[in-house]
TrEMBL record:
<dbReference type="GO" id="GO:0032465">
    <property type="term" value="P:regulation of cytokinesis"/>
</dbReference>
<dbReference type="GO" id="GO:0005813">
    <property type="term" value="C:centrosome"/>
</dbReference>
<feature type="domain" description="ZFYVE26-like TPR repeats">
    <location>
        <begin position="248"/>
        <end position="321"/>
    </location>
</feature>
<dbReference type="GO" id="GO:0000724">
    <property type="term" value="P:double-strand break repair via homologous recombination"/>
</dbReference>
<dbReference type="GO" id="GO:0000281">
    <property type="term" value="P:mitotic cytokinesis"/>
</dbReference>
<protein>
    <submittedName>
        <fullName>Zinc finger FYVE-type containing 26</fullName>
    </submittedName>
</protein>
<dbReference type="Pfam" id="PF25569">
    <property type="entry name" value="TPR_ZFYVE26"/>
</dbReference>
<dbReference type="InterPro" id="IPR028730">
    <property type="entry name" value="ZFYVE26"/>
</dbReference>
<dbReference type="GO" id="GO:0030496">
    <property type="term" value="C:midbody"/>
</dbReference>
<dbReference type="InterPro" id="IPR057946">
    <property type="entry name" value="TPR_ZFYVE26"/>
</dbReference>
<dbReference type="GO" id="GO:0005765">
    <property type="term" value="C:lysosomal membrane"/>
</dbReference>
<dbReference type="GO" id="GO:0032266">
    <property type="term" value="F:phosphatidylinositol-3-phosphate binding"/>
</dbReference>
Length: 326
């Protein structure tokens, strides 16, 4: 930095050039600290940080060096908040999720780090066998949320937490942790079913509990139908329906229709038994399930059809089915 030519260059840059050009010059000459201090001093916009400092750092494998300097200049990282948020957005746009995860951990942004772990778990998976091999990501997500709860409980009543870290209520964190736990149980169960050959996933993207309600109902259906019999997976499926307050009757009807398609008529009776013993089903739910699948399929063998009709409790419903032309 004492070199005359170097000082001459700086003189012209400071007098006639842009902040980005000055910062890029510092970075090219391995003066990263000076580049960062200039960025702060001039209150340069996040775009300058991304183009002049952040991209050259991670592209040359010097992200840790950059992180150490950011922390040494401001241990709270508050000064870098807007720049760190912009860096995360940049990485997400580029689909550089491994670098993003590393940065989120440096930022101690536990909630977003957990979200990235969930993405690592579910992204582009084609079977529950694949998901079974990626369960460690859900454990990491849970760990991030546990740390977040510990940190927020320690800092309650003190100065408000850093603005650039994602906030979440303790109730929401607990809810997400329950979802992670339930998804782990679903994954282990369906992984086992796929290995045994009793379950096959044909729809993509692969349904998980991180999707919308329709996808969650799909998960419940697959768990009910994936085991060696309905009873095998009903307990987990029932918890999915209860935890997410899904339309249970509609889900049971979907499962029953799939059983008729596969001509597993005895399993329909087992489904009705499980629904009845669940303790929360309405008295009419069993009839609703039977009527729904009987109306949808016309080619049920007479003997099986008679058995299903006999399982209907309401006499009016029985009459309406019997009087139909089959």
């Amino acid at each position: 930095m004492n070199n005359t030519y170097y000082q001459e260059c700086l003189f012209y840059l400071h007098n006639y050039s842009t902040n980005l050009a000055i910062i890029s010059f510092y970075v090219r000459h391995s003066c990263l600290r000076e580049a960062l201090l200039h960025l702060l001093n001039k209150e340069s916009p996040p775009e300058v940080f991304i183009e002049g400092i952040f991209q050259p750092s991670y592209k040359s494998g010097k992200l840790h060096t950059l992180e150490n300097l950011l922390e040494s200049i401001d241990p709270t990282l508050e000064s870098w908040g807007k720049y760190l948020i912009a860096a995360c957005q940049h990485l997400q746009k580029k689909n550089y999720y491994h670098i993003l995860y590393e940065l989120q951990q440096f930022m101690k942004d536990q909630v977003r780090a957990a979200m990235t772990c969930i993405r690592f778990f579910s992204h582009k998976a084609k079977s529950y066998t694949e998901l079974g091999e990626k369960l460690s990501w859900l454990l990491k997500a849970k760990d991030h949320l546990k740390i977040y709860l510990q940190e927020t409980s320690r800092s309650s009543g003190r100065k408000k937490t850093t603005f650039f870290r994602k906030k979440m209520t303790a109730a929401d964190v607990s809810r997400h942790m329950n979802t992670l736990q339930l998804q782990m149980e679903v994954t282990r169960f369906l992984h086992r079913c796929e290995s045994a050959g009793t379950s096959q996933i044909t729809t993509l993207p692969l349904p998980t509990l991180f999707g919308n309600n329709h996808m969650k109902m799909d998960v419940a259906c697959k768990v009910m139908l994936g085991g060696k019999n309905v009873e095998d997976g009903f307990g987990i499926a029932f918890r999915v329906l209860q935890d997410f307050q899904l339309d249970a009757a509609m889900t049971y009807c979907r499962a029953a229709r799939q059983l008729v398609e596969k001509e597993k008529y005895s399993e329909i009776r087992q489904l009705l038994k499980c629904v009845s013993e669940s303790g929360v089903a309405a008295k009419s739910d069993g009839d609703t399930i039977l009527l729904n699948c009987l109306e949808a399929f016309k080619r049920i063998p007479p003997q099986e059809l008679e058995g299903l009709i006999q399982a209907i409790h309401n006499d009016d419903n029985k009459v309406s089915i019997v009087s139909k032309p089959w």
